[in-house]
Design goal:
The complex is a heterodimer of chains A (about 240) and B (about 280). Chain A has about 240 residues and is α+β, with helices and mostly antiparallel strands. Chain A contains 9 helices and 10 strands. Classes of the chains: A alpha+beta (about 240), B mainly alpha (about 280).
Chain lengths: ~240, ~280
């Protein structure tokens, strides 16, 4: 009975979440609207059994940005042995970013450590002006201290997003009574990208629920572990040679 | 501008918002009370010996029909529906949504009904028959618990709270359910001689048990059950799961506090009635 109720609830809630997102976007300034991007879903989506949207296969992006300790972090090389969750957002975000991060962190806490240990969450700031390393460390630690925060200049971040078919981040106007660096919003892609086994790529739009993460993450980790072989040096060396 | 509190999706702000629909409802209820019962009745200096019906009142307790009861109930309703409680409960925090439920369905109705003078309303043929049927204790108890279960289903909450009309509907169903539930406890019309103090106490004890399923479902769910609150912009960093657990506890503790207080009052009145019986026969 409860299972059936939850199933109905899930389908209705996804529709509601979409509506809520539209309302949220409508309420915000034009520039601050969260944009989903035009990533084409794969035709194999239905058969995959994931709740996320399966995208056209492709390699993990190869970029290097600074982490919150100021060290260079090469995304492909650093995450090659793990399932990688990549999200572009900013710490002053009032809605989408904290909801995504809190949901993922909450589900990770429930997963067995051997699953959790195979997942890496990377948050790339779209607001480097306000997202100082200290600010990012503090904000991400509030969700999960293992979350990785990366920063770079806006041009570099937008180039990475362009390669991932994500729209560029757009800084909104500062309110008339505010000062530069004050309470402006930043429009950014609203989905979390997941890079799994091989060239598997998925998108989890805003509205993805903790139940969806709890369903997909163990499945993705399991498939990743089955396909990933540490001896796969060819792909690893390719990854390293592709670093900026 | 919104006329009724509903999930907005935008970040929570402490900037005051006007909800004219709430004001109109509160005004309409106040006008209806004034039209049918009036606000002219004063609280007697000594409440003893002035309470003819004996249902409530005497020895320091204001009598039934005292407008102060009604005003307090209406105030509770207003607080539950208007900004900020109404807005937070409609679209941000499940725990505040549950606080609204306690205020709208369990606190405001008995206070409003206590403001109705003894012997009123005079039930006549027509629509009152349906009310008479709905307020039969057995039917009222079933209806109220159906309201609790139905209005806390995730599919219902998530689909209704996104719109003002849906949110209004939930609030009104809570209010109507609360009035129906409390009616046989507080009002003496229609007369139900068989529904004395022991039955009333049993009725309330049953009510404390029946909502346990909803409480357990909310408190011990591994995941957030309402997408409305799970995906709402966070308020003060309260996680969706903590908020939901708090909501479940609030439902159980809040409901229990109200119902057991009422049970205590009924025990007291029963004791008073039994004590007075040898010396007085005026109390029915």
């Amino acid at each position: 009975m409860i299972g059936a109720v939850r199933a109905i609830a899930r389908s209705l809630s996804m529709a509601t979440a979409t509506l809520v997102t539209l309302v949220a976007c409508d309420a915000g300034s034009e520039a601050a609207r969260a944009t989903e991007g035009d990533i084409p879903p794969s035709s194999t989506d239905a058969a995959a059994g994931y709740r996320g949207v399966v995208l056209e296969p492709g390699p993990r992006p190869d970029f290097t940005l600074s982490d919150v300790d100021g060290k260079a972090f090469g995304f492909r090389a650093e995450t090659e042995s793990q399932l990688a969750l990549l999200f572009f957002g900013y710490t002053n975000c009032p809605d989408i970013c904290p909801v995504h991060m809190a949901g993922i962190a909450s589900v990770l806490r429930d997963l067995p450590w051997e699953v959790r240990d195979r997942i890496r969450v990377v948050f790339v700031s779209t607001d480097p002006g306000r997202d100082t390393p200290e600010r990012m460390r503090e904000w991400l630690s509030g969700f999960d201290p293992r979350f990785i925060g990366l920063r770079g200049d806006m041009e570099a971040v937008n180039r990475i997003q362009a390669k991932l078919a994500l729209p560029p981040a757009i800084r909104g106007a500062v309110p008339p009574d505010g000062e530069d660096g004050g309470s402006y919003e930043v429009g950014h892609a609203a989905q979390v990208l997941v890079f799994g086994a091989g060239d598997l790529r998925l998108a989890y739009p805003f509205g993805t629920r903790q139940a969806d993460w709890k369903h997909d993450l163990p499945l993705l980790v399991s498939e990743f572990q089955a396909s990933y072989a540490p001896s796969d040096t060819a792909s690893a060396s390719n990854a390293r040679s592709g670093l900026d | 501008m919104q006329w009724w509190c509903a999930a907005r999706g935008s970040a929570w702000t402490w900037s005051w918002q006007a909800y004219p629909g709430v004001w109109l409802l509160v005004l309409a209820i106040a006008l209806a009370y004034w039209r049918f019962f009036g606000f002219g009745r004063r609280l007697p200096a000594r409440h003893a010996d002035t309470n003819a019906d004996g249902a409530a009142g005497s020895r320091g307790v204001p009598p039934r029909g005292w407008p102060g009861w009604f005003v307090t109930g209406l105030l509770c309703l207003w607080i539950a529906l208007d900004w900020p409680v109404g807005a937070l409960g409609a679209g941000y925090l499940a725990s505040v949504h549950m606080l609204q439920f306690v205020l709208i369905a369990l606190v405001a109705p008995p206070l409003i009904l206590l403001g109705v003078p003894a012997g009123r309303p005079a039930l006549r043929a027509g629509p009152w028959n349906l009310l008479e049927l709905a307020t039969h204790p057995l039917i009222a108890l079933v209806l109220f618990n159906l309201v609790i279960i139905f209005t806390h289903l995730p599919s219902v909450v998530d689909s209704l709270m996104a719109s003002q009309l849906g949110s209004f509907l939930i609030d009104m169903v809570w209010l109507a359910g609360g009035v129906v539930f409390w009616w046989p406890i507080i009002l003496d019309r229609p007369a139900r001689p068989g529904f004395g103090f022991p039955m009333k106490i049993g009725y309330l004890i049953l009510a404390t048990i029946v909502n346990t399923g909803t409480f357990l479902y909310l408190t011990f769910s591994e995941l957030p059950v309402y997408s409305t609150y799970e995906l709402a912009p966070p308020v003060y960093g309260i996680s969706a799961r903590d908020d939901q657990t708090l909501a479940g506890l609030l439902m159980k503790v809040g409901t229990a506090a109200v119902l057991w207080t009422a049970i205590g009052v009924l025990f007291y009145l029963w004791y008073r009635e039994e004590s007075d019986e040898p010396s007085s026969t005026s109390h029915a």
